[in-house]
Amino acid sequence: MAAANPWDPALEPNAAGLLLGHLVASGMVTQEMLNISKKTAPCFVNFSRLQQTTNIQAELYQKSLEIELLELEKETADVVHPFYLAQKCHTLQSTNTHLEAVLKKKRSLRQRLLKPMCQENLPMEAVYHRYMVHLLQLAVTFIEKLETHLETVRNIPHLDENLKKMSKALAKMDILVHETEELAENILKWREQQKEVSSWIPKS
Asked: Cα separation of 82 and 77, whole Å?
């Protein structure tokens, strides 16, 4: 609540008001002078506006910080959110329980791995034996050609370069074929000319 202006003559008379009334009555001060003195100085108006601008800027800065915090929380929600943390903790606990069970049975697992697999194969009905033979043949063929297949896979990244080299080689081969054809034609022409020349030479 704003404090009352002691210089306002409309309020209850006080010491300041009585003094101003006496000065006005004596002619030392006019009412216009008092009215002018009541107006706010421009410097105070500018100060008030500057204070409002500063407050607005501080509020905007605070809001921008809050927005950045919300964006950071959104980006890291899958890391720091309690729901996702609970899921990850549950997964880790399950993995830990499984590893503990494996460590407890390490001795029996090692014995099973060292134990030969002889006479422990599943029986297969006779009607499937011929398919098994065919499958084994395919497996043997695949193993024999495995290195070739791997080499083909390794060459896939260089396929474009190899195609360019092949195109250049084909172009050179076409040029050589054309030159060979021209050379063969020249040889045939030369033979014809030699026959004509030899026919002109009289026989002794």
From this structure: 9
With 0.70 as the threshold, say if the pTM is over it: no
**What is the tens place of the pLDDT at every residue in 68-115?**
888 887 777 666 667 777 888 888 888 888 888 878 877 777 777 676
SS3 track for the chain = CCCCCCCCCCCCCCHHHHHHHHHHHHCCCCHHHHHHHHCCCHHHHHHHHHHHHHHHHHHHHHHHHHHHHHHHHHHCHHHHCHHHHHHHHHHHHHHHHHHHHHHHCHHHHHHHHHCCCCCCCCCCCHHHHHHHHHHHHHHHHHHHCHHHHHHHHHHHHHHHHHHHHHHHHHHHHHHHHHHHHHHHHHHHHHHHHHHHHHHHCCCC
Given a cut of 70, the residues of the chain with pLDDT beneath it are 1-17, 29, 34-47, 77-81, 113, 115-123, 201-204
How far, in Å, CA of 192 to CA of 16, rounded?
143
